[in-house]
Amino acid sequence: MDAALRAAPHGLAFALRPERHSYGLIQETGEFVANVPSAREAWATDYCGVASGRKVDKFKRTGLTAGPADAVRPPILLECPLNLECRVRHTQALGSHTLFLAEIVAVQASADLLDAKGRFALEKAGLLAYAHGHYYELGRQLGHFGFSVKKRQPRKARG
Asked: Is the pLDDT of residue 12 over 60?
């Protein structure tokens, strides 16, 4: 592993209300898995967001399958193309929510979405995103970091 990666672990941050069932589970274990769904899991994702695990067996209701994580106790979801296994490193109360800052300690990705060099092919994954009350499918690349300020190469004169 590259020394820079060891020095600066990859992280994930999210805010959660203490009333949520998952809040207590994360506080108890200090671990969680961010299961990143594709558009195929949109219905199950939405259902899991509105139904409480205190009252319903979400695995039974949605047909999602729990699988073993590599580095943490909570399970991954086998249907999700990307699973980020995390350990909480810090929490910060923010009024109605608590901010969780976590280190990503392991990553599991669907093998069919890895290229020959092991790069995750985000553009093929059809990952699900949620913004302003709506779900979206990710995929189309718009540019790369710094493309808006990249110096243009002078055109060669035709001779």
From this structure: yes
Alpha-carbon distance of 78 to 59, in angstroms, equals 11
The answer to whether the CB of 61 falls within 8 A of the CB of 51 is yes
HSE-CB for 106 with a 13 A CA cutoff: 14
Give me the torsion for CA of 59, 63, 69, 73, rounded to 10°. 0
Res 72: pLDDT: 97
The tens digit of pLDDT for each residue in 89-108 reads 999 999 999 999 999 999 99
* Separation CA 23–CA 103 (nearest Å): 17
CA angle (7, 27, 33) in 5-degree steps: 60
pLDDT tens, residue by residue, 53-74: 999 999 999 999 999 999 999 9
Write the DSSP symbol of residue 57: -
- Joined tokens for residue 36: 């990143």
